[in-house]
Amino acid sequence: MLRLTTLAALAVLVVLLGACEQQDPEIAEEDQVPGDLVEAEAEEAADEEAADDGDVVETVEVVAVDNDFPEMDDQITLPAGTVEFTLDNQGNAVHNLAVEDTGDMIVDDLDGGEQATGTYTFEDGDELTLICDIPGHEQTMRFDVEVEG
Ligand SMILES: [Cu+2]
């Protein structure tokens, strides 16, 4: 009788252990989902922080055609700090965006149909001219930047 009870107890234990084993992967899987979410949120927060550290104070979209920046005024005013330029080459020729006065390249050569971004950090009082520096393009692909504040 005692032996039967022991066997029954063992059987119950085995069943319980079996149940635990079965549950383990489920628990692990449930743990994994929020874990991944937390990780993704943390990465997103880190990205936002990195963007803040870059201090992009303004974004400017510059459309390029052959050979003109048709949507740009002859002169624009920008705040001091890091400005992000998106160059959208809607022409067929290669175009870029550079600072004529310093020779700095903001957005490197883009084939027709391509789009890319680059940044330039302006200082208060800067008066610069941005151009496409492909030979012959700068006569018509240019605009002045006045930096205030
Ligand atoms: Cu050009």
Short description:
This protein is an alpha/beta fold. It folds into two domains: 1-54; 56-147, Cupredoxins -  blue copper proteins (Immunoglobulin-like), CATH 2.60.40. It is built from one helix and eight strands.
Could you describe the 3D structure shown?
- Helix content is 36%, strand content 35%.
- It is α/β, with parallel strands linked by helices.
- The chain folds into two domains: 1-54; 56-147, Immunoglobulin-like.
- It is globular and about 35 Å long.
- The model is unreliable at 10-21 and 45-53 (pLDDT under 50).
- Bound molecules: copper (II) ion.
- Copper (II) ion binds next to loops.
- Copper (II) ion (CU) is lined by residues 67, 95, 132, 134, 137, 141.
- Major β-sheet annotation: 5 strands, mixed
Tell me the CATH topology of the largest domain.
Answer: Immunoglobulin-like
Mean pLDDT: 80
For the biggest β-sheet, the strand order reads: 2-8-7-4-5
Low-confidence stretches: 10-21, 45-53
Ends apart, CA distance between termini: 93 Å
Helix-strand topology string = HEEEEEEEE
Shape: globular
Cα gyration radius (Å): 31 Å
